[in-house]
Specification:
single chain, mainly beta, 5 helices, globular
């Protein structure tokens, strides 16, 4: 298990200076809260702080990578606390494999619209920035798409934060909350079709590892969806109506929860940082329940996918755990007529302070206490 030395953790102002070397970071502010956003990477939220410019950064992005010339790097994976992708990753309608290629790890291909397209700023206030851009995508069966994307990243003030979660924030608890809201409009010359491929809005956030994740369930679940590698009892447990996951970045794995068991909230607790993280998201399943399927298996329903995913980074070449885990949510997919839109919001919250008060928040939002989160993988079966 790795240890995070808070005295050596990156500060928000040092991260901001790093980003400013090659980009023009937008800093949203509310009181002591800060959120750095880059238009250059699709209006991506990169890192936040609850303690002003000199406070510790919350979230992960590849600092060493962003010091380099990125023009010749393929499949750029920068990270960030809230980034925009589009699904599906795998399958007959995959967006991450070029037409005619075998769908194996060696042929993964990130399209520009998924990684490096800069978004135009159309409106900006101290707490919110709105972007727009026209993008093109092509899926594995050569279906071409044209979309207009509108994306807003907003930093909540204290009242907005509490209202958006319908909770009272206890005294002495530091809190930050921000929203990434994306609308995808069919700007092509024909409707989207299930037979040629649908698209989902996919939002992902990278955070420091050694956290335990809780995924509340709307009804019992026998097993989670596994991606890349089999699930392990050491890292995945279903207790009553909660999925617990050990996000230690020492075992490359991904899990998912389908719409039938989804509640529109997930969260994690990192005891080394004393940080409770909550993600609340838009969940409006259509009548046909279509969620794109990105499992790395053949012969699966391409529209029988998951709503929430957890990605756990694996061991590095030197045997050390990877630098992050991800909290991911996806919109549903549907046949968009010309000019019709699909939207998805993904709100991220962090809380730190007195553990008893944090536990009250955790129970109110996730249905589990901090004690449960810290002991679920150490308790005797």
């Amino acid at each position: 298990m790795t240890s995070v030395n808070l005295s050596q953790a990156a500060s928000f102002d040092s991260d901001l200076a790093l980003l400013a070397d090659n980009y023009q970071p937008i800093v949203l502010t509310s009181g002591d809260n800060r959120l750095a956003v880059l238009a250059e990477f699709q209006g991506r939220a990169m890192v936040s702080s609850m303690s002003g410019d000199q406070g510790n950064s919350i979230g992960w992005f590849d600092r060493e990578l962003l010091k380099q010339d990125l023009s010749e790097i393929e499949n750029l994976n920068v990270g960030g606390v809230s980034r925009l992708w589009f699904g599906p990753e795998k399958g007959p309608y995959a967006l991450f494999f070029e037409p005619g290629t075998a769908q194996v790890a060696e042929t993964v291909h990130y399209q520009e619209a998924i990684t490096t397209v800069a978004f135009d700023i159309v409106n900006q206030t101290p707490q919110q920035v709105t972007f727009e851009q026209d993008i093109q995508l092509v899926n594995h069966m050569e279906t071409e798409f044209s979309f207009h994307v509108s994306r807003s990243v907003a930093l909540f003030d204290a009242a907005e934060l509490a209202k958006s979660l319908a909770v009272t924030i206890p005294d002495g608890i530091r809190a930050i909350g921000f929203s990434a809201s994306t609308t995808l409009t069919n700007a092509g010359n024909k409707p989207l079709s299930r037979q040629t491929g649908l698209i989902s809005i996919w939002e992902l956030g990278c955070f420091s590892p050694n956290a335990t994740i809780a995924i509340p369930l709307s009804q019992p679940l026998t097993e989670v969806t596994s991606y890349f590698t089999p699930t392990k009892a050491s890292h995945t447990k279903i207790v009553d109506e909660t999925v617990f996951y050990k996000a230690d970045a020492s075992y490359m794995n991904k899990i998912g929860v389908p719409p039938e068991q989804t509640k529109p909230i997930i969260g994690s607790y990192n005891p080394e940082l004393n940080l409770l993280t909550i993600v609340k998201f838009q969940f409006e399943p259509p009548e046909d329940g279509s969620y794109v399927n990105s499992v790395w298996q053949d012969d699966v329903d391409p529209y029988g996918g998951d709503v929430t995913n957890i990605f756990n980074y694996g061991l590095l070449a030197n045997g050390q755990p990877g630098p992050f885990y991800e909290l991911e949510t996806s919109s549903h997919a549907r046949e968009l007529a010309i000019g019709e839109s699909l939207s998805h919001y993904h709100n991220t919250y962090h809380f730190s302070g007195d553990q008893q008060q944090l536990s009250i928040l955790s129970e109110a939002l996730l249905g589990v206490s901090l004690q449960q989160l810290q002991q679920v993988f150490t308790a005797t079966n």
